Amino acid sequence: MLCKNKGLLEEIVDPLIKVQISPNSLRKFAEIAEKCLREDGDDRPTMRDVLWDLEYALQLQQTARTREPHEDSTTDASSALPFPNVRRFPSYSVSMNEVDMQILRDQDNSISSESKVFSQLGIEDAR
Asked: According to a count of CB atoms within 10 Å of the terminal CB, is the N or C end of the chain lower?
């Protein structure tokens, strides 16, 4: 970990894979190793945490491989990730009458007022 602290981590990587490894993936891998080598066993990660971190390091490596060769390793990798399919939820419009406004104005009984307001919304699909 001395190389990591001095910023020389890339110097200990095998020259045959040095050009292929993503700097971000290498840094994450070194962090994992450092956590596993902690003096106190209680401070070390669980195998589940190690597995998750290794899978993340692999994703960093795979994301780096899909980029163009001229791109810098510090660019935002999230732009390469697919955008999830987001569906719009139905919106409900609620009109308020004078009775509703009076409930909102009632400062002395705010908890029951909130309850009354929400019960008057009448949204059938609410959970």
From this structure: C
Q: φ and ψ at 62, to 5 degrees?
A: -65, -35
Residue 10 lies in a domain: yes
What are the pLDDT digits (tens) for 21-33? 888 988 898 899 8
- Report if residue 29 sits inside a domain: yes
Model pLDDT for residues 58-115, shown as the tens digit of each residue = 999 998 877 655 555 555 555 555 555 555 555 555 555 565 555 555 555 555 555 5
CATH of the domain at 61: 1.10.510.10
Taking alpha carbons only, the member of 101, 109, 105 closest to residue 120 is: 101
**DSSP label at residue 91:** P
